[in-house]
């Protein structure tokens, strides 16, 4: 049986109880390095896998034996579950996790039922999709940083506030809040932005 576990935004404190129990009891546990390191206090023998191709190979090698794959955030929010499904790999169970976006909205105390969600992480940036009302949350990476997003939105005439969060939930978490167009120095590898766009002078 193949189980995918959402590990939350980063810090082990944000694991669900169900996820923690499954991490402890899974016969075999695979994770990418950052996630593997974050849960070693729960499971010392977690196998750190360094690439998507290696992860796919290990899953296929497991065959019908029980294996759990631990992924950051929630497996179905721009997550690895979609990668497996696209390759015809069937998941028997998915345990939900707290996404970095959920964490960010709670941290910033911004209601998010009307929010829109985008990912520029390893994807082409669609700046046209940012325009509109309501807050927008965007997952970022080193290629498309919060600072680049801030500058490019400003150049397109977008105004408002932007909050960038790097290493969400970790002890060295950093939050920078500024106007769109300002410089934003945050860790580019583990970052997201929440944008509150001004429409007719209102956000």
Automatic annotation (TrEMBL):
<dbReference type="InterPro" id="IPR000878">
    <property type="entry name" value="4pyrrol_Mease"/>
</dbReference>
<feature type="domain" description="Tetrapyrrole methylase">
    <location>
        <begin position="1"/>
        <end position="182"/>
    </location>
</feature>
<protein>
    <submittedName>
        <fullName>Probable cobalt-precorrin-6Y C(5)-methyltransferase</fullName>
        <ecNumber>2.1.1.-</ecNumber>
    </submittedName>
</protein>
<keyword id="KW-0808">Transferase</keyword>
<dbReference type="InterPro" id="IPR014777">
    <property type="entry name" value="4pyrrole_Mease_sub1"/>
</dbReference>
<dbReference type="InterPro" id="IPR035996">
    <property type="entry name" value="4pyrrol_Methylase_sf"/>
</dbReference>
<dbReference type="GO" id="GO:0008276">
    <property type="term" value="F:protein methyltransferase activity"/>
</dbReference>
<keyword id="KW-0949">S-adenosyl-L-methionine</keyword>
<comment type="pathway">
    <text>Cofactor biosynthesis; adenosylcobalamin biosynthesis.</text>
</comment>
<keyword id="KW-0169">Cobalamin biosynthesis</keyword>
<dbReference type="GO" id="GO:0009236">
    <property type="term" value="P:cobalamin biosynthetic process"/>
</dbReference>
<dbReference type="InterPro" id="IPR050714">
    <property type="entry name" value="Cobalamin_biosynth_MTase"/>
</dbReference>
<dbReference type="InterPro" id="IPR014776">
    <property type="entry name" value="4pyrrole_Mease_sub2"/>
</dbReference>
<dbReference type="InterPro" id="IPR012818">
    <property type="entry name" value="CbiE"/>
</dbReference>
<dbReference type="GO" id="GO:0032259">
    <property type="term" value="P:methylation"/>
</dbReference>
<keyword id="KW-0489">Methyltransferase</keyword>
<dbReference type="Pfam" id="PF00590">
    <property type="entry name" value="TP_methylase"/>
</dbReference>
């Amino acid at each position: 049986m193949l189980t995918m576990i959402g590990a939350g935004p980063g810090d082990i404190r944000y694991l669900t109880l169900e996820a923690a129990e499954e991490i402890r009891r899974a016969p075999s546990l695979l994770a990418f390095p950052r996630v593997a390191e974050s849960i070693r206090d729960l499971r010392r023998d977690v196998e750190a896998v360094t690439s998507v191709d290696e992860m796919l190979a290990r899953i296929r090698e497991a065959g019908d034996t029980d294996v759990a794959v631990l992924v950051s955030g929630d497996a179905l929010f721009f997550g690895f579950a979609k990668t497996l499904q696209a390759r015809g790999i069937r998941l028997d169970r998915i345990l939900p996790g707290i996404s970095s976006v959920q964490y960010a909205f709670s941290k910033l105390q911004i209601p998010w039922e009307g929010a829109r969600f985008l990912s520029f992480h390893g994807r082409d940036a669609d700046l046209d999709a940012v325009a509109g009302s309501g807050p927008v949350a965007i997952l970022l990476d080193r290629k498309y940083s919060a600072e680049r997003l801030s500058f490019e939105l400003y150049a397109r005439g977008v105004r408002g506030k932007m909050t960038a969060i790097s290493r969400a939930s970790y002890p060295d978490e950093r939050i920078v809040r500024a106007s769109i167009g300002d410089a934003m120095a945050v860790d580019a590898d583990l970052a997201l932005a929440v944008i509150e766009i001004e429409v007719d002078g209102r956000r």
